[in-house]
Backbone:
């Protein structure tokens, strides 16, 4: 195939140990792109609402983006998609690193995995062969050890996507990890548990082909012209990672969630844990994903006991979830907690959030030392936090209650704990407060996988100059709801297309808009997409995922924010006195989307998007 994609996916039935190759025509890619877009098409068409997420017949899709592995800047992403065991609805967990690009080099765009192996296995893929191999010797090992062993068994230059003990134990917050101790994660929604339910320990890939590019010379020329601008606009991300500016911008604005979203200020703690502090104290080197000039990743060296250890430095979301949210200002312990989550294969956002939730339950006397087996779950108790991570991954004691996330934990604990269980549709919120940027209130409420900042990244839009091709005629005041529905619709459409193309959304932080992305897509594929047509594809994908959720009963009643974020008026900080007017924004949002008052895409809208057969 000559359009960036390979035109082939692998079908693996683990119950029958059956492998088939399915050809995908170019017109399908033109309509859905690839990655989470192609996954949404396949999973919707094959979806049986009667099947629980961990049922052997429930499909798991692992599909690289259309441009992943090409020379396009930051074209590295792979989407892992299925019905989430944590939320029960659509889930797409996206990961960078090198796995997606290496998968494309084998000549395949992705895999659709069904069934359950009788014993633990891994899938070994090259351009010449696809094998299902025993992983019994790997079961029980963490993700770092698993990758090391599999590279010895297969090829030292292979790439591995695997689960740790959290996935094996079917923790609802379990992630799929790639690249070993450098740790990139398909984290959200429990895709690691879906792999674990199939007795699938890992997928290993090694290829030698490169995706074909129609107009490579012109593409390289365009990239070279864009590169200096991208580096300039993302210099802070390169220098200090995603936690840059935590003390100088994030915390003062009220965007940093503190003490389970209760506090408005945490000045001293933010200064101790910011990306600048991490780099100054512990940096060993910068690193990036495939095709990335930003290189936001940080490898740090910390002393753990008597041992000095290299590890992946915590990203902003991990830093804030395991830090400010739990009143933990110990950067070494935040980094250690982050590494444990990576080893076990746990989503750091959900893990930090459920720990903050249970700390508040402990403070309020809803649970006691008897429930925690002696753990003093007081705010900032780093020893207790570390012990809880072990218990969650192993489903031991109270960890078994917490392992499926905040929503299910609050249902089990009861006693009004639901009032401070912070989630949307069962997925814990990322570390951006919708009381600081009300656009994020609408983003979280309407996100197809639940609370997800990556479905709009609206806070970054409001923080800086406009992005090319994303016109916006209203005030950029973060506390003003006027015009925000229009902004969110456009940004959600753009992010859906970026995801399906396999592009890192930090391109958006670098102010790279739809016109440039459409240009690069056309140079790779030979198509003639306009930027508006690219956004229309994103709109199609967003609506298709909404219809997947509608089959599971998702409507307006589920497009909510937790009580704390709608009613708790913080008395200090940059967002004091501000609460989002979600109901008002939802009405306008549904009208702009072409949805009914109940939040369901109407027939005319589906027909306009070429989704007539979607019901």
Residues:
């Amino acid at each position: 195939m000559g359009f960036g994609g390979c035109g082939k996916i692998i079908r693996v039935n683990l119950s029958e140990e059956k492998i088939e190759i399915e050809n995908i025509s170019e017109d399908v890619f033109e309509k859905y792109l690839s990655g989470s877009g192609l996954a949404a098409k396949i999973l919707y068409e094959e979806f049986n609402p009667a099947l629980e997420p961990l049922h052997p017949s429930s499909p798991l899709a692992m599909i690289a983006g259309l441009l992943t592995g090409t020379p396009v800047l930051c074209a590295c992403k792979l989407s892992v998609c299925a019905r989430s065991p944590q939320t029960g609805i659509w889930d797409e967990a996206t990961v960078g690193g090198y796995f997606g690009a290496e998968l494309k080099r084998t000549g395949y765009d992705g895999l659709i995995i069904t069934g359950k192996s009788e014993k633990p296995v891994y899938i070994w893929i090259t351009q010449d062969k696809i094998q299902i191999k025993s992983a019994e010797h790997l079961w029980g090992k963490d993700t770092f050890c698993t990758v090391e062993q599999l590279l010895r068994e297969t090829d030292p230059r292979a790439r591995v996507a695997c689960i740790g003990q959290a996935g094996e134990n079917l923790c609802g917050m379990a992630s799929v990890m790639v690249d070993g101790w450098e740790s990139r994660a398909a984290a959200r929604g429990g895709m690691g548990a879906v792999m674990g339910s199939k007795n699938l320990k890992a997928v290993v890939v090694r290829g030698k082909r490169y995706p074909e590019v129609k107009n490579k010379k012109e593409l390289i020329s365009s990239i070279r012209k864009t590169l200096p601008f991208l580096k300039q606009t993302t210099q802070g991300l390169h220098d200090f990672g995603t936690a840059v500016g935590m003390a100088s911008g994030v915390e003062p604005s009220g965007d940093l969630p503190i003490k389970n979203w209760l506090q408005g200020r945490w000045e001293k703690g933010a200064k101790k844990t910011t990306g600048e502090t991490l780099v100054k104290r512990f940096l060993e080197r910068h690193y990036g994903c495939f095709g990335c000039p930003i290189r936001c990743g940080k490898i740090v060296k910390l002393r753990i006991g008597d041992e000095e250890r290299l590890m992946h430095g915590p990203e902003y979301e991990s830093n804030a979830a395991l830090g400010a949210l739990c009143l933990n200002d110990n950067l070494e312990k935040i980094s250690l907690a982050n590494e444990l989550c990576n080893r076990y294969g746990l989503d750091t956002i959900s893990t930090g959030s459920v720990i903050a939730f249970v700390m508040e339950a402990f403070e309020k006397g809803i649970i006691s030392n008897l429930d925690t087996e002696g753990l003093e779950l007081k705010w900032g108790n780093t020893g207790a936090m570390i012990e809880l991570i072990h218990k969650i991954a192993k489903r031991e004691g109270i960890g078994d209650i917490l392992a499926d996330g905040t929503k299910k934990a609050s249902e089990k604990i009861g006693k009004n704990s639901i009032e401070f269980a912070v989630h949307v549709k069962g997925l814990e919120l990322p570390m951006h407060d919708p009381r600081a940027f009300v656009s994020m209130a609408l983003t979280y409420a309407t996100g197809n996988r639940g609370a997800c900042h990556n479905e709009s990244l609206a806070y970054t839009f409001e923080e800086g100059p406009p992005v090319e091709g994303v016109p916006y005629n209203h005030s950029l005041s973060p506390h003003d709801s006027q015009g925000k529905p229009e902004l969110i619709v456009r940004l959600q459409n753009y992010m859906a297309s970026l995801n399906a193309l396999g592009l890192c959304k930090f391109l958006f932080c670098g102010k790279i808009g739809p016109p440039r992305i459409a240009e690069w897509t056309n140079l790779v594929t030979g198509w003639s997409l306009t930027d508006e047509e690219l956004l229309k594809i994103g709109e199609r994908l967003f609506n298709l995922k909404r219809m997947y959720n509608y089959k599971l009963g998702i409507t307006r009643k589920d497009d909510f924010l937790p009580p704390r974020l709608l009613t708790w008026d913080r008395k200090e900080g940059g967002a004091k006195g501000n609460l989002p007017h979600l109901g008002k924004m939802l009405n306008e949002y549904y009208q702009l989307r072409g949805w009914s008052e109940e939040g369901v895409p109407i027939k005319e809208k589906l027909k306009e998007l070429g989704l007539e057969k979607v019901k």
The longest strand covers residues 297-304.
